[in-house]
């Protein structure tokens, strides 16, 4: 196999690990100081592991000019969002970094500062991984690990006819934030611009809300919204062998997104399908909804009813008059 090109802008592999990655593993005993090829860790009695992985490629999943610390934090948070959708308590993560020749030591230092900040915020640590060189583009992969009481993790396939469909937070901010970073919406006020770009760079995994909803035992199906609300609702419908109606006028949007829609309602499909929301999407019986809304309120979070589950298959998106909306795309697809 051909050797990858030397990356002269970085210290040697083991110096890089010792200088920047070992400190991230300092509070994770099973990581063994990153001196071994494995991590050892055991969940508490009665709990099972929840594992999820995502890869990020420069120019596809993040902009090459994005600050390194924000790239690191988003990589971590999108995985924590998957754990949140299962009600899991995050424990730690494994990480693979494939550094391209344009990455220098200052970039790595800032990248690790971002990881350290979110490790402190979410109470987790680095458990291990691998560091390699690549001719490009810069490629990053992270596997997040959490725990949940055995058999209690909500799945996609539990939706039932008659269920209400609910979503947390607001939808569309991440997709709009990417548009702002690409210099679209030039007339948007600065406060809205900052809000939307922050939502794109720093999604908020709903870890506490997901855990509380799981513990309630009232949720039938749950996942996070990453590929777009319509696409991810279709994932629930397909896995559960049901049909669902999404009421577009009920979908919660932020003030910044509302300002963009006020100028041009043709941007509504982007909000419904753009993705990068990392909110929780769930179904529950109507009699459970008041309790679930109360759980969210106690955490200073918002849940909104956006649709219903029925017998059949597929997703129908309707306007305020009940007329079906035709969408050119249902959501993000890698290929």
At a glance:
By secondary structure, this protein is of the alpha+beta class. It has two domains: 13-149, 60s Ribosomal Protein L30, Chain: A (2-Layer Sandwich), CATH 3.30.1330; 156-318, Phosphoribosyl-aminoimidazole Synthetase, Chain A, domain 2, CATH 3.90.650.
Task: Describe what you observe in this structure.
- This protein is an alpha+beta fold.
- The chain folds into 2 domains: 13-149, PurM-like, N-terminal domain (60s Ribosomal Protein L30, Chain: A); 156-318, Phosphoribosyl-aminoimidazole Synthetase, Chain A, domain 2 (Alpha-Beta Complex).
- The protein contains 10 helices and 10 strands.
- The protein has a 6-stranded mixed β-sheet, sandwiched between helices. It has a 4-stranded mixed β-sheet with strand order 1-4-2-3.
- α3 (105-122) links the parallel β2 and β3 (125-133).
- α4 (173-181) crosses α5 (190-201).
CATH class of the largest domain: Alpha Beta
Q: Helical amount among residues, as a percent range?
A: 25-40%
Based on secondary structure, the structural category is alpha+beta
Lateral strand order in the biggest sheet: 6-8-5-9-7-10
User: Percent of residues in beta strands?
Assistant: 15-25%
Biggest sheet: strands, sense, closure?
6 strands, mixed
**N- to C-terminal separation?**
28 Å
The CATH superfamily of the largest domain is identified as: PurM-like C-terminal domain
In terms of per-residue confidence, which ranges show pLDDT below 50 for 5 or more consecutive residues? Answer: 1-7
The number of strands is 10
Number of domains: 2
Count of helical stretches: 10
Q: So what's the overall shape?
A: globular
What is the CATH architecture term of the largest domain? Alpha-Beta Complex
> On the 0-100 scale, what is the average pLDDT?
92
Gyration radius from CA atoms, angstroms? 21 Å
List the secondary-structure elements in sequence, H or E.
HEHEHEEEHHHEHEHHEHEE
Indicate the CATH topology of the largest domain.
Phosphoribosyl-aminoimidazole Synthetase, Chain A, domain 2
């Amino acid at each position: 196999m051909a050797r990858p090109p030397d990356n002269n802008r970085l210290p040697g592999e083991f110096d890089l690990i010792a200088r920047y990655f070992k400190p991230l593993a300092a509070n994770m005993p099973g990581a063994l100081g990153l001196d071994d090829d494995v991590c050892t860790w055991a969940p508490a009695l009665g709990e099972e592991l929840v594992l999820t992985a995502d890869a990020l490629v420069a120019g596809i999943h993040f902009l090459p000019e994005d600050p390194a610390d924000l790239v690191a934090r988003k990589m971590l948070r999108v995985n924590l969002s998957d754990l949140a959708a299962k009600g899991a308590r995050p424990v730690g993560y494994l990480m693979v970094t494939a550094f391209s020749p344009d990455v220098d030591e200052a970039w790595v230092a800032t990248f690790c500062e971002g990881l350290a900040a979110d490790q402190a915020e979410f109470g987790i640590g680095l458990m291990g991984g691998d560091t390699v060189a690549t001719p490009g583009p810069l490629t990053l992969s992270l596997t997040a690990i959490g725990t949940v009481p055995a058999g209690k993790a909500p799945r996609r396939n539990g939706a039932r006819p008659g269920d209400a469909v609910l979503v947390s937070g607001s939808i569309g901010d991440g997709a709009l934030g990417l548009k702002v970073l690409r210099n679209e919406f030039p007339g948007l006020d600065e406060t809205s611009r900052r809000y939307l770009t922050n939502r794109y760079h720093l999604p908020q995994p709903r870890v506490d809300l997901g855990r509380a909803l799981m513990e309630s035992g009232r949720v039938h199906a749950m996942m996070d919204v990453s590929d777009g609300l319509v696409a991810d609702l279709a994932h629930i419908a397909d896995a559960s062998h049901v049909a669902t109606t999404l009421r577009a006028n009920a979908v919660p949007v932020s003030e910044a997104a509302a300002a963009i829609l006020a100028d041009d309602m043709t941007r509504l499909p982007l909000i419904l399908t753009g993705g990068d929301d990392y909110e929780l999407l769930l179904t529950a019986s109507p009699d459970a909804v008041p309790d679930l809304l109360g759980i969210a309120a106690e955490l200073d979070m918002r849940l909104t009813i956006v649709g219903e589950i029925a017998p059949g298959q597929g997703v129908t998106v309707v306007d305020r008059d009940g007329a079906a909306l035709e969408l050119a795309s249902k959501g993000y697809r890698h290929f």
